[in-house]
Amino acid sequence: MQCPSCNTELPKKAKVCPKCGTAIGKPKGNLRVMAIIGFVVMLIASLLPMVQSGEKIKLGLYPKAYAFGYMNISMPVMWYLFIACIVVAIILVVARKEILSIIPVAVSVVITIVSFLAFDFNSVEGKVMGGGLKFVPHSLTDLLSNGYNGNSYHIGCGLIVLAIGVVIAIAGCFIDVVKPFKKDLHVDTKYLSNSLNQSLSNKIYYYRGFYLMFLPVFVMIMLFNYWPMLGCRYAFTCYIIGNPYYMGLYHFVTMFTNDVYFWQAFRNTLILSIIKLFLNTGAAVIISLLLNEITNMIFKKTVQTIIYLPHFMSWVVVASVFKMMLAPYDIAPVNSILMNMGLIDTPIDFMNSAQYWRGTFYVMNVWKDTGWGTILFLATLSGISPDLYEAAQIDGANRFKRLIYITLPALANTIITVFILNLAKVMNLFESVFVLQSPITYTKSQVLQTYVYVKTFGGGNSDYGYTTAVGLFKSFVGMILVLGCNWASKKVRGRGIV
Question: Whole-prediction pTM value?
Answer without folding.
Answer: 0.73
